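I have been asked to look over a protein record a colleague put together. What it holds is a sequence and that sequence's fold in token form. Please read both lines and tell me whether the tokens look consistent with the sequence. I do not need a full report, just your reasoning and any doubts. This is what I was given:
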Amino acid sequence: MASAADSSKPKTSPKHIKFLFGGLAGMGATVFVQPLDLVKNRMQLSGQGSKAREYKTSGHAVISILKNEGVSGIYTGLSAGLLRQATYTTTRLGIYTVLFESTTGSDGTPPSFLLKALIGMAAGASGAFVGTPAEVALIRMTADGRLPPEQRRGYSNVFNALVRISREEGITTLWRGCIPTMARAVVVNAAQLASYSQSKQALLDSGYFRDDILCHFSASMISGLVTTAASMPVDIVKTRIQNMRTIDGKPEYKNGLEVLVKVIRNEGFFSLWKGFTPYYARLGPHTVLTFIFLEQMNKLYKRYFLDS
């Protein structure tokens, strides 16, 4: 009976291919959205410690960056963004895909919404731990241009950043903000991966969509909106901790709770959602592109290697 049930399951790609496709999909999406990630990080750091903001809107931020740093400045930190996807996304999407398939019934029945959320959280936390060093480098590289020249760290690329951080601040600094990074990943992946699967399933069940790019796009946009609203407060904590400096031997923030308290007290409660537009403008397209690339690579692999 077990062998009959196993044979009824459709053929799937090997686990190492799932991990590879997950990373490649995330990296491909990053090439398109890196400027939006830069703007999002600058907006979250804008006006730190007061209600005065350096950038009035995301459009103002883009214009300021282009004016002061040139066209190439808008792609600052791309190498770190690619390494983050190669580590974080490869791990989280690979683990999520494997767990999702292992909990799918022999008749093709998908796991429940709650189980999808738990799978997403486990995958996200694992990926975040692996990807934290690249995340630290990315935050610092994208934040550098807003500082006076004498205060800039001046990392030339992600590997230069990782080596210098290890040498100048200790190797454990590469995992600074690991806890809020993992907490953010739990929120993001519970919202993003579960809501994507649920949205895609609901769209297909409606009878108005087929399993094609339009369905993937629509499900991804819904997933990105849910994720943005849920994860922004945790994301601003992560960004500020990873960018903070140590002054006279004391860090700017002791922990994530202190970041939240200071932001609310000095900048207002809704500053926790500061930069909502660039955050979604980055997360929405990145979610869309990641899942589209992933779906298309899976289809091509199935066509040429599983069905042949």
